[in-house]
């Protein structure tokens, strides 16, 4: 049985947690392959609501093994508080596996994230302040600390020293902060070693052996396509690859094993933090989307910026991820509008442009070209099949499908597990 990737097709918060949880009951492994606790995935099971940041959403499905792959950055303090929070609510977390090659978010990475953002002032990225960017920077600079380093005190000390050498210069001379002592960091990190040990393993071997044994492996992306460090709206992006290729590098599973790539797509658009957003609304429609859609960040509590659906972005997501399917979420939020604008192209310097421009300055002043689609007023939260939807809601879905370049195989009509219309099976 094959591997599937489930990822965000926009700027994150599309409903990946809910979609993963929905499939979690039928898959053997759910793997996070990039990002860290910058993610905020909300899963609603019955009357219980869970907010997961670092753990794969599959942790809520009893038969499923959750895996933190080598591409993820792990803050051990967050990991343990998330695990104990779930344990207190009766969730069994003992099956969790963590790659020994995953990088650790150290306390100094969190400090650097915060001070650099403050230093950027008006030009800031609006990061989640969780140390994500600096940890990936250390990884690429080859001064990162990996999970396996916690099991050799001498190597750990040398590595922390090497990482802090340059950082302390920067912290004290540029940012006017106190230097961070190697010994203190090493002590804190060693304090996690025994508690982490039962989870740490060679996840590359585990996942490839599982696939050889016909097990089903689901990769759960954090963030979204437009936040990808290579394919997103750089520099207003996260520091990893949420796009489909990241599932391979971030887990050690080869691309030939992946048979399905599912893009999670919100029926409108949201974004958190700074950066261009052509369909952003600053009027009461934007306010209404935020209110009805509950568009407030799970991780930072920031209001999400809201706008209409952007088909140019959806087409781009289909292309860079090789999407085979879409899972359209939050269709219910659009109930009540008489007409719903959908962005079908951009106008850039007086010219109509159908595809996402590669030039950052073009994208920054792209104006949306809207097509108006008729809305519906009926409550759709109880819809179980496509034909239960009002005709105009059906037409909206079909129009989005045609514009976006891949079949819409499921539709979310509410936050709950069962508030989903399945059109084509994913498994
Ligand atoms: P993620 O980061 O992609 O996992 O998404 P978030 O959890 O940050 O944000 C999505 C929000 O929408 C969560 O509060 C979900 O419970 C909620 N949600 C997901 N799907 C639907 C849906 O189809 N309808 C509604 N009304 N809410 C949904
Ligand atoms: P999920 O998985 C939405 C955004 C931040 C900021 C940029 C860089 O819930 O969809 P970072 O802390 O990653 O260096 O911040 O990326 N960002 C997200 N926006 N959803 C997320 O995750 C995000 N994770 C990071 O707001 O603009
Ligand atoms: Mg989120």
From TrEMBL:
Pfam families in the cross-refs: Adenylsucc_synt (PF00709)
Residues the record lists as binding substrate: 298-304
Enzyme class, UniProt record, top EC level: ligase
Superkingdom: Bacteria
Binding site for Mg(2+): 13, 40
Ligand binding (GTP): 12-18, 40-42, 304, 330-332, 412-414
Record SUPFAM superfamilies: P-loop containing nucleoside triphosphate hydrolases (SSF52540)
Catalytic activity field: IMP + L-aspartate + GTP = N(6)-(1,2-dicarboxyethyl)-AMP + GDP + phosphate + 2 H(+)
GO molecular-function terms, A-Z: adenylosuccinate synthase activity
EC number(s) from the headed UniProt entry: 6.3.4.4
Binding site for IMP: 13-16, 38-41, 128, 142, 223, 238, 302
Residues of the active site: 13, 41, 139
UniProt remark on cofactor binding: Binds 1 Mg(2+) ion per subunit.
InterPro entries: Adenylosuccin_syn_GTP-bd (IPR018220), Adenylosuccin_syn_Lys_AS (IPR033128), Adenylosuccinate_synth_dom1 (IPR042109), Adenylosuccinate_synth_dom2 (IPR042110), Adenylosuccinate_synth_dom3 (IPR042111), Adenylosuccinate_synthetase (IPR001114), P-loop_NTPase (IPR027417)
PROSITE patterns (alphabetical): ADENYLOSUCCIN_SYN_1, ADENYLOSUCCIN_SYN_2
Main location: cytoplasm
UniProt keywords, alphabetically: Cytoplasm, GTP-binding, Ligase, Magnesium, Metal-binding, Nucleotide-binding, Purine biosynthesis
Cofactor: Mg(2+)
UniProt xrefs under CDD domains: AdSS (cd03108)
Localization (cell): Cytoplasm
Biochemical pathway: Purine metabolism; AMP biosynthesis via de novo pathway; AMP from IMP: step 1/2
Subunit field text: Homodimer.
UniProt family annotation: Belongs to the adenylosuccinate synthetase family.
HAMAP family named among the record's database cross-references: Adenylosucc_synth (MF_00011)
Purpose: Plays an important role in the de novo pathway of purine nucleotide biosynthesis. Catalyzes the first committed step in the biosynthesis of AMP from IMP.
Protein's UniProt name: Adenylosuccinate synthetase
Organism: Streptomyces incanus
Gene from which this protein is expressed: purA
């Amino acid at each position: 049985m094959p591997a599937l990737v489930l990822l965000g097709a926009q700027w994150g918060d599309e409903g990946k947690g809910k979609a993963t949880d929905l499939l979690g009951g039928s898959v053997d492994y759910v793997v996070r392959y990039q990002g860290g606790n910058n993610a905020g995935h909300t899963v609603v099971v019955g009357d219980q609501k869970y907010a997961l940041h670092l753990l794969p959403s599959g942790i809520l499905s009893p038969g499923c093994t959750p895996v933190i792959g080598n591409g993820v950055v792990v803050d051990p303090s967050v990991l343990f508080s998330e695990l104990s929070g779930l344990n207190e609510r009766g969730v069994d977390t003992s099956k969790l596996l963590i790659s020994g090659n995953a990088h650790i978010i150290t306390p100094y990475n969190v400090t650097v994230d915060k001070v650099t953002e403050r230093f950027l002032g008006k030009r800031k990225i609006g990061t989640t302040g969780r140390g994500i960017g600096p940890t990936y920077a250390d990884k690429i600079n080859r001064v990162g600390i990996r999970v396996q380093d916690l099991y050799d005190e001498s190597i750990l000390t040398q590595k922390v020293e090497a990482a802090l050498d340059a950082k302390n210069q920067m912290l004290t001379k540029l940012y006017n902060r106190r230097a961070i002592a190697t010994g203190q960091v090493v002590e804190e990190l060693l304090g996690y070693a025994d508690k982490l040990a039962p989870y740490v393993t060679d996840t590359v071997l585990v996942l490839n052996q599982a696939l050889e044994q016909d097990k089903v492996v689901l990769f759960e992306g954090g963030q979204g396509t437009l936040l990808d460090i290579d394919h997103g709206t750089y520099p207003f992006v996260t520091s990893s690859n949420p796009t489909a290729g990241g599932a391979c590098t971030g887990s050690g599973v080869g691309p030939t094993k992946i048979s399905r790539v599912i893009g999670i797509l919100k029926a409108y658009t949201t974004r958190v933090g700074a950066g261009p957003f052509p369909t952003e609304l600053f009027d009461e429609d934007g306010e209404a989307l935020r209110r009805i859609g509950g568009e407030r960040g799970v991780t930072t509590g920031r209001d999400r910026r809201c706008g209409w659906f952007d088909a140019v972005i959806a087409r781009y997501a289909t292309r860079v991820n090789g999407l085979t399917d879409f899972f359209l979420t939050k269709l219910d939020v659009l109930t009540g509008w008489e007409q719903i604008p959908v962005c079908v192209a951009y106008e850039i310097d007086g010219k109509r442009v159908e595809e996402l421009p590669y030039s950052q300055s073009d994208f920054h002043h792209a104006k949306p070209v809207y097509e108006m689609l008729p809305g519906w007023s009926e409550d759709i939260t109880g819809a179980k099949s496509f034909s239960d939807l009002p005709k105009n809601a059906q037409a909206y879905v079909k129009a989005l499908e045609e514009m976006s370049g891949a079949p819409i195989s499921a539709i979310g009509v509410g936050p709950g597990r069962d508030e989903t219309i399945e059109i084509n099976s994913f498994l």
